[in-house]
Amino acid sequence: MLIDNHNRKINYLRLAVTDRCNLRCNYCMPSEGIDFSQNEKLFTIGELSKLSEIIVSQGIDKIRITGGEPFFRKDLMVLLRKLSKMEGLEEISVTTNATLIGPHIDELKALGITNINVSLDAINRDTFEKITRQDQYDTVHNNILRLITEGFKVRINFIALDGQNTEDILPMLNLTKHYDVSVRYLEEMPFNGGSRKFESIAWDYKRILAYIKEAYPNYEKLPSEETSTSINYKIPGFKGTFGVIPSFSRTFCGSCNRLRITATGDVITCLYAQPCMNIRDILRSDNSEEEVKKQILKAVGNRSKTGFEAQQEYKGIFAKSMTSIGG
Known about the structure:
Strand order of the largest sheet: 9-10-11-8-7-6-5-4-3-12-13-14
Order of helices and strands: EEEHEHEHEHHEHHEHEEEEEEHHHH
CATH class: Alpha Beta
Distance between the termini: 24 Å
Largest sheet: 12 strands, mixed
Oligomer: single chain
Structural class: alpha/beta
Strand content: 15-25%
Number of strands: 14
CATH architecture: Alpha-Beta Barrel
Helix content: 25-40%
């Protein structure tokens, strides 16, 4: 079992398999993109599987596959097949932009990997294309509907971007009226590949809730797990639910159970912290299993208590893109 220096149980790994993405969302990276990592710096599928086995043996029982866009890796399903058979791993989930998932939906369902988070910041076509700078609306829309209708547990993550997509908050919420889906509204975070900087946000979770309350004053708060980053609600008569994630306000830090490892091996113990080490070369060395375990224990034993504390210790992370951090 992994216990951090603040007596929090760490059982959830966000594992990035690539830093590449086929969209160019304007809050994530500049229009020209970023300098993606060379292939030799990325974990191989075999290394990702070995790393997962080691960390699962230490008490991680939930792994979320992230990117970049995970399905940008043509060999991703090889990893997911291995993870689906891994003893001790209770939950596998994937965060995706839903552009490339279509051909894999049947196999994902067969493997029991049915928890899918879709990053979708607009339900209006024009707004979607302005934010993503790509023409993928129909593909994303069709894949989301297929996932929902085929019984996947779909969460749609919508980042509230001032002056860009807040008019889509209520139309996006209407999805929960007709479908058993969870729409979660996130505060904007200052990870944008250097495209801009800010010290505050216009749409924090309180404003998002107040805006929804004007249209649906009778929504009800739902119970949530202690480690949940989202505060969840339901509108009476709606099939689905909605939530808010205070990703900038960081109200959930006290119960954080997450560890992040990027596609190049950086170990990140807090989204607002600098990488504390790189595990890739250690994994590629002799006697790697015991050394990886040792370094993971060291990382977990030196976590910041909150994202605000981590932010004070490291200012440079805001120049990075979310696609290189691992979500």
